[in-house]
Amino acid sequence: MHRSIATVSLSGTLPEKLEAIAAAGFDGVEIFENDLLYYSGSPREIRQMCQDLGIAITLFQPFRDFEGCRRDRLAKNLDRAERKFDLMQELNTDLVLVCSNVAQDSLSNESMLVDDLSLLAERAHTRGLRIGYEALAWGRHVNTWQQVWSIVHQANHPALGVLLDSFHTLSIKGDPSAIDQIPGDKIFFVQMADAPLLAMDVLEWSRHFRCFPGQGDFDLANFLAPIIRSGYTGPLSLEIFNDGFRAAPPRSTAADGLRSLLYLEEKTRRVLEKDPTPPAALDILFQPPKASRYAGVEFIEFAVDEPQGARLGHWLERLGFSCTGAHRSKAVKLWQQGEINIVLNAEPYSFAHGFFEVHGSSLCATAFRVKDSNAALTRARDFKGQPYRGLVGPNEREIPAVRAPDGSLIYLVEPSQPGQRIYDTDFQLQTNAKTSCGLNSIDHMAMALPAESLDNWVLFYKSLFDFEADDEVVVPDPYGLVKSRAVRSPCSSIRLPLNISESRNTAISKAVSNYRGSGVHHIAFSCDNIFEAVSRAKDAGVPLLEIPLNYYDDLAARLDFEHKFLSELAYYNVLYDRDPQGGELFHVYTEPFEDRFFFEILQRKNNYAGYGAANVAVRLASLAKLRANR
Amino acid sequence: MHRSIATVSLSGTLPEKLEAIAAAGFDGVEIFENDLLYYSGSPREIRQMCQDLGIAITLFQPFRDFEGCRRDRLAKNLDRAERKFDLMQELNTDLVLVCSNVAQDSLSNESMLVDDLSLLAERAHTRGLRIGYEALAWGRHVNTWQQVWSIVHQANHPALGVLLDSFHTLSIKGDPSAIDQIPGDKIFFVQMADAPLLAMDVLEWSRHFRCFPGQGDFDLANFLAPIIRSGYTGPLSLEIFNDGFRAAPPRSTAADGLRSLLYLEEKTRRVLEKDPTPPAALDILFQPPKASRYAGVEFIEFAVDEPQGARLGHWLERLGFSCTGAHRSKAVKLWQQGEINIVLNAEPYSFAHGFFEVHGSSLCATAFRVKDSNAALTRARDFKGQPYRGLVGPNEREIPAVRAPDGSLIYLVEPSQPGQRIYDTDFQLQTNAKTSCGLNSIDHMAMALPAESLDNWVLFYKSLFDFEADDEVVVPDPYGLVKSRAVRSPCSSIRLPLNISESRNTAISKAVSNYRGSGVHHIAFSCDNIFEAVSRAKDAGVPLLEIPLNYYDDLAARLDFEHKFLSELAYYNVLYDRDPQGGELFHVYTEPFEDRFFFEILQRKNNYAGYGAANVAVRLASLAKLRANR
Q: Where do the annotations place a divalent metal cation binding (chains A, B) (predicted)?
């Protein structure tokens, strides 16, 4: 597939944008007119710049308010077009986007629109140029692809074709399924944009909230599928108006853009493969190895110095973990309980293996249990993930890994028989019969991310691992709002709530500031009996986060709990949530470990699927109080 | 008027909120239930805290999904109410907000709703408590004040009354005019919220975009007027859900809240004074002196050190200003041209008269020409403005002044006869016959503000000076979006565009960061002949901001300009804009002075009223290029 992106999707000056687009691996670029108007170089210089960078100029856009204009303006409008044709020839692009007229006084007569566009197409044709006609969702008279195709079909001019934009169709709940009735060579260009579903004015939505495919809520695969069926083989181009992208560094935005197209192509391929006769053009779509099956978190690894390691070990011990092994060649300890494996790595310079500086203890690696680690790695690499192979000492196994967006490692570990597990080869194991708290597994790991990086992380997990993303949840911290969006493996064996906050003084923002970037926010362990687990942890001296009694008074008012049961909840600071299907969550938080992260112990009943969002506000208020008292 | 605010309107812990509310001068507070649930102290402790701070608890809220609930839940719901009544008695408040049921399965039968609410009212009544019933705009069956009043009227219970919230009526375009038909003593409580007009889901709009009266687009004076006519004398309370307020320091938010109520009361008073028989209750509304007439900017004053003063003076000289005076007792110089007076103050420690530190040359004072400076000062003080009286040396006149939100000074200067002007008394004047550039007056002064402070500034000018605020304009900087909202005196003799940006790397954000807060962004001088003025400035060596030729090629394509005229525009880097009414703007920018601010020279034709928003993007791109090249 020929992959392209509009300059308006990125921040920066025109040269900065073009360099970022080339670096991300795009084949082409749409030049958004304003980027050219505001640039001090000539169109010829821009053409040369693109040529040097190896990207084609796929489109010049937009040309507005032409067809059906007031008759006294038609001649002037044609003059205006000729000026832009001059410019296109200097740029060396043959295609211009003409978007449907939005002027209040524009005319609706369809045969007039056909005539106007034929006239324009003929002018273009004599100069070897072409017109792509697009329906804006808010066009005065033309706002569907069906109208555009009807006009293009009637005009029947070789230089006039259909230009499709997913946003303009899907934002007004248009049906794209019959696009495959258009001959592929009459579709001149395809623009792709996703967006979150927002009940707001379409123009505002379009101008500020578009996002890359996979970051929003549109069903883009079923938009692209009929286009591929039509035989279209032209560029697939991203045209994203997004306030965040306008402010973010262009290189990382462009890289996400390319990844989003690969993601969309794979999803579209899956749709098309279900066709009785898949189209021949299927082969132009990106084809990575299928995602492997994930089966939980095998281990997590913290980078610590020796004293931090000792302090964190002490916390783990009180939480019922046992230190069961020491690494054969490194200053690395293994702590275990149930299926949970926690590695404390105190090797100097080992943190995230030299990728970034240590600022206090941090989660530096997570290992996912995966059925086929090599296929998983190939897929990650195909999606432009950064693979990692570390130093391998004597007796150590090499584990395939890929960098998470923050540079920490995600190991891909295949299940092994007892005796052949990574711990058996790399660690000297010892059996310590300590009292467990009954913690079974890592239920979820919540991350604190810089506000602008959420979409990047979501797309990373969705594409490389084929994870799913839950809807965004907004919860109040006493000092601002927090947004949370969880990604999880298809069977929910791995769950990663990703948290951001645009307010400076929330717990999330403080964590991001402490980490100088993203970092783990809390780690939740599951258990089968919350009161047993918490009681043991409390007895062992684990500092539990205190929940106000007012919270339990409200539970009493709202629910039919017995007084004794409520007292027990309150005594152990256990929070409670219930979903509409009768699922129940019992959960308790610890105080933070050295102002970095904290632990959660939880019990899910009746397939409760969430993370206790109803209780996040009280947890944040209690954390804020704790911080204020220090 | 008894003035109140809901705890949910502010950020922080409950004690932080209560302290801020008391400090701002409110009489009372609505306790939002969640603030209580998340607080570790008991309701009795909160009651004591409020008593110590001298604020009454005016309301406990909300109690949800009661009336018309499924019959099997009614008993449980009454139990839930009794628990909350317990809590109210501990808090020592007698009024609870019951908002209309939103549950999908709630029942619509009006007589049932009357019965349910009568039952609840009777339970409250036996404990000396009262119920305020409110229609949520998104209530399942009840969503207008008319329905609420109908139900309250039928119930005819002394403990059941109407609770009004401006947002819930105005957001769904409800008509408040007949509220005066409700007996005043059947209105138990009034909540006030403004909001910008946004075409979006009402619930989302309500939860994130409410703002204080005067900061949004609602006609609140005509909402409050019929309430006052009804004879209502209870609290006027702010209930604002706003993402920005949730993150801002509670004390400044609370201060704005109180000011917004004063502003609303004055506006409401003006509406009521037009009644043939103004209501007796008119007297409970705030009554400041009427705003004075403003007639332009008398002078602006920069704080500089000696070398900065020399450099800035050199810029002014090239712009056609003459140094016409030296202060009698201070290191202060006067520069003049046309009606423009610029003071360069190089007194050590003089910057903003000790209010904040100097970080490079900054605008430290602005003087408004005003008809009655003492009335203007009284009004400013009544609206909680901070008056200022500086040190007055021999021969110096004392000028009334008030602090702007950033601590700089706004002098209030009455017009004087020649020979008796402030310059005549304070300065030793000299006549320097220099070449003027034909600049007449200060057309506008644009400010760069921290993103979160825009609403504060807008309310400051609207209330203290009775200025008007234009609609917000959004323009793209290459590194993010910029929002601009202009405030201006009623006759537009003083115009102050206020600019913010939520993106870190825009020109506005860089300016805010350079100033370590708000500061002047650019100063625009008007002239009668743009080409004459710019030509002289260019000859004198003023560095004009270079505009790309591509911009003029586009003008050529769009407009019927002669080639020669376009060449002249391009040669002098003059930007052009035209409004739909035929008004025209010609304007040119200088490069920035020491990375701080820049100057603009403009000519308005045919009553062009804007600021050239269409050209801001090209200006920002040119500025960004200039920055990048340094």
A: 134, 165, 191, 239
* Among A13, A37, A79, beta carbon nearest to B554: A37
Please report, to the nearest 10 degrees, the dihedral formed by the alpha carbons of residues A104, A109, A111, A113 taken in order: 0
Q: Nearest-CA residue of chain A relative to B476?
A: A246
Give residue B390's pLDDT band: very low, low, confident or very high (50, 70, 90).
low
B477-495 mean pLDDT: 96
Residue of A443, A438, A430, A440 whose CA lies nearest to A334: A430
CA–CA dist B35, B57 (Å, integer): 13
Distance CA B406, CA B356 (A): 9
Q: What is the mean pLDDT of residues B66-94?
A: 96
Q: Could you tell me the two tokens for B37?
A: 């649930």
Which residue of chain B is at minimal alpha-carbon distance from A245?
B480
Closest CA to B10 of B27, B30, B25: B30
Amino acid identity of B67?
A: E
Q: Is the peptide bond before A490 cis (omega within 30 degrees of 0)?
A: no
User: How far, in Å, CA of A257 to CA of A265, rounded?
Assistant: 12
Q: What is the pLDDT of residue B353?
A: 43
- To the nearest whole angstrom, how far is the Cα of B82 from the nearest Cα of chain A? 8
> In this structure, what token pair is assigned to residue B117?
């609410």
Least Cα distance to A247 among B479, B502, B477 occurs for B479
Pairwise CA distance, residues B206 & B196, whole Å? 10
A566 at B interface, C-beta within 8 A: no
Q: For the residues B456-466, what does the mean pLDDT come to?
A: 97
Domains, in order of start, for chain B: 3-284 (3.20.20.150), 294-429 (3.10.180.10), 440-628 (3.10.180.10)
With a CB-CB cutoff of 8 Å, which residues 575-594 of chain A face chain B?
none
Alpha-carbon separation of residue A19 from A48, A55, A616, B550 (angstroms) = 13, 10, 43, 21
Tell me if residue A24 falls in helix, strand or coil: helix
Q: What HEC string does A242-282 produce?
A: EHHHHHCCHHHHHHHHHHHHHHHHHHHHHHHHCCCCCCHHH
Report the SS3 class of residue B150.
helix
For residue A44, the chain B residue with the least C-alpha distance is: B550
pLDDT above 60 for B394: no
Amino acid at site A355: F
B348: tokens are: 């050590």
- Residues 497 through 536 of chain B touching chain A, CB cutoff 8 Å: 502-506
Which residue in the block uniquely carries the two structure tokens 């005003």? B370
Residue found under tokens 């525009």: B569
Which of B314, B214, B192 is closest to B259 using CA atoms?
Answer: B214
Q: Is the predicted pLDDT of residue A351 greater than 60, yes or no?
A: no
- What burial class does residue A337 get, using C-beta atoms within 10 Å of its C-beta: 0-12 exposed, 13-18 middle, 19+ buried? buried
A511, A521 in Cβ contact below 8 A?
yes
From A257's Cα to the closest Cα of chain B, the distance in A is 18
In the prediction, which pLDDT does B97 show? 98
Tokens matching residue B69: 């609930």
Neighbours of B231 (CB within 10 A): 16
Residue A83, chain B, CB below 8 Å: the answer is yes
Residue A75 vs residues A72, A109, A116, A243: alpha-carbon distances, Å: 7, 18, 11, 37
Tell me if A18 sits within 8 A of A39, measured CB to CB: no
Tokens of B247: 């993150």
A105 contacts chain B (CB < 8 A): no
Is residue A302 within 8 angstroms of chain B, CB to CB?
A: no
Q: Is the pLDDT of residue A356 over 90?
A: no
Residues of A in contact with B481 (CB under 8 A): 243, 246-247
Say which of B481, B560, B625 has its CB closest to residue A13.
B625
From the list A12, A34, A481, the residue facing B243 with the nearest CB is A481
Strands B427-429 and B322-327, how do they pair?
antiparallel
